[in-house]
Structures are given as structure tokens and as C-alpha cells.
Design goal:
The chain is of the alpha/beta class. The protein is built from 9 helices and 7 strands; from the N terminus they run E-H-E-H-H-E-H-E-H-E-H-E-H-H-H-E. It has helices spanning 19-29, 48-53, 57-67, 82-96, 122-150, 172-192, 214-223, 227-241, 250-261; strands at 7-10, 33-38, 72-76, 101-104, 154-159, 197-204, 272-275. The chain starts with 6 loop residues before the first strand and ends in a 7-residue tail after the last strand. One of its GO terms (molecular function) is oxidoreductase activity. Keywords: Oxidoreductase.
């Protein structure tokens, strides 16, 4: 129970097979109490499995955290709104009396960005920067302020991506947003080091999360497949290209997040660690 007495705030924690949920449960299993947040999504923005199982986003995750014997605060928030981010952090601190760990995991729903840069809609560009980058900045800003005020140090962990180190075609918005997260991680680490607050990033490759993708939904329809069938083909093909023979599971990412959130990482800051089975060395 290395995180006994600590409080964590995890964004984007509502997915049934997502990194946010896996992270919240991992931190709770190590003794942390957790605040979890996500946006309320319409059924069209949910993976089919969540719709079919009547998954209830962070409310379902909250039940699981309680089952581990930890306190939990589920908060629905739109991270494209700066005031909601400030309120989110304030609610977590007011409820638990402290904040020790900030995990910036939320990301924009992918798919509409998967076009050449000459075809990329400006609104889609701004949306990706808003959720994937600006929200990370604001969570770092407001959580960092609270950590500085309390004077107990802290841990901030940002979920970046392989795409934040190596771009690919049809990925201008996503890669730009994740490259920016790595720069933000380094700058924030320097700004907060004097206060005993570390800031690091985790950079996953492909992850088997069943996350929603408009592109996958459209491609599946064109091929006469269900979205889940098409997703399974992508997972299989990606695994074959990965040196370790599979793509990451959400728990693989959560394991590294928990290390960076814990006491054994106290002398590590400003770093961006890959979790990709050997796909990229950088």
C-alpha cells in the first residue's frame, strides 16, 4: 500500500477498458483515494461494448474503487472549459482535503483528424489541441498550485503517445497535440522541481482499449463489418508488427503511471517513457 494516505485525480477515467479506469483502480489498489472525471458522452460517442453492457462511465468505475475499500469522488466535467477544470481540482481538494497525484489521461475522440493536413478541418485541429494539450496545461496549472500551496510535494503524470515522438501521415492534429504534451512535461518539471513536485509523461503505442474512433466506425461500415470486428483486425495486425508480439493493454500503461506516482520515482522528473513493446526507441 505504497500510496496509503495519498489522493489522486485521474481524467478520462470513464472508459470500460480504458487507461483512466485501469489507472484509477491501480492507484486505489495501492492505497490511494481517487477523484475521477470524464465527460458525459452520447451513445454515438461510446464503444459498442459499453452501450451493450450499459456501462455507466465514471459511476461504474467509482463502484469498483469502493469495492477496493477506497474513497472515490466521480465528477463529470468538460475539459474544453477552463472554469470546469479549475472547479474540478477545487472539488477534489475540498472533498479529500489534499491532492497528491494528478494523472492527465483524457483525450479527444480520434477519427475526424485522420486526413492529410491539407484536408484537416480547423475546428478539429482546435478541438484536439483543446482536449489533448490545453486541458493538460490547465490541470497541471491548477493541481500544481494546490500542491505548492499544501507544501507536500506531488506527482503529475501526463499521458502522451508514441505519436508525440514520431508523427505519421494523417496525424497532424493528434501528433502536434502530443508533441506539445512532452514539451509541457519538461517545462513544468523544471518549474515545479523546487517544490518537490515531479512531472513525467507516459508514451503508449497502440493500446487494446476499445476506445471510440470515428475513423474505425466508418471503415467498418464500408467493409460490412461491425466496429468491433474491424477493431479486432487492427489489434491483430498491430500486434504482429510489435517486437513483443502484442499491443499494450490498459494495465501496462497503468503500471508505469503508478510507479511514477509512487515513492520509488522521487528522483525522476521531466521524462517521457515509452510503453510500446519495442515499436519505437526514442
Amino acid at each position: 500500500m505504497t500510496l496509503e494516505g495519498k489522493v489522486a485525480l485521474v481524467t478520462g477515467a470513464g472508459g470500460m477498458r480504458g487507461v483512466g479506469r485501469a489507472t484509477a483502480l491501480k492507484l486505489a489498489s495501492q492505497g490511494a483515494d481517487v477523484a475521477i472525471t470524464d465527460i458525459r458522452r452520447p451513445a454515438d460517442d461510446l464503444p459498442p461494448g459499453e452501450v451493450r453492457s450499459e456501462w455507466q462511465s465514471i459511476d461504474s468505475v467509482a463502484d469498483e474503487v469502493r469495492g477496493l475499500g477506497r474513497r472515490v469522488l466521480p465528477i463529470y466535467a468538460d475539459l474544453s472549459e477552463s472554469q470546469q477544470i479549475e472547479d474540478l481540482v477545487a472539488q477534489a481538494v475540498d472533498h479529500f482535503g489534499r491532492l497528491d497525484i494528478m494523472v492527465n489521461n483524457a483525450r479527444a475522440v480520434i477519427g475526424r483528424d485522420k486526413v492529410p493536413v491539407t484536408e484537416l478541418d480547423e475546428d478539429v485541429w482546435h478541438h484536439f489541441l483543446s482536449i489533448n494539450t490545453t486541458a493538460v496545461f490547465l490541470c497541471t496549472k491548477f493541481a500544481g498550485r494546490e500542491m505548492v500551496r499544501m507544501g507536500n510535494g506531488g506527482r503529475i503524470v501526463n499521458i502522451a503517445s508514441n505519436a508525440g515522438k514520431q508523427a505519421s501521415a494523417d496525424g497532424a492534429a493528434y501528433s502536434s497535440s502530443k508533441f506539445a504534451v512532452i514539451g509541457l512535461t519538461q517545462a513544468s518539471a523544471l518549474d515545479l522541481a523546487a517544490h518537490g513536485i515531479t512531472v513525467n509523461a507516459v508514451c503508449p503505442g497502440p493500446i487494446n482499449t476499445d476506445r471510440m474512433s470515428y475513423w474505425e466506425r466508418d471503415q467498418a461500415a464500408q467493409r460490412g463489418l461491425t466496429q468491433e470486428q474491424f477493431r479486432a483486425q487492427i489489434v491483430s495486425a498491430s500486434g504482429e508488427r510489435t517486437p513483443l508480439g502484442r499491443i499494450a493493454e490498459a494495465g501496462d500503461v497503468a503500471n508505469l503511471v503508478s510507479f511514477l506516482a509512487g515513492p520509488d520515482s522521487e528522483f525522476i522528473t521531466g521524462q517521457s517513457y515509452n510503453v510500446n513493446g519495442g515499436l519505437l526507441f526514442h
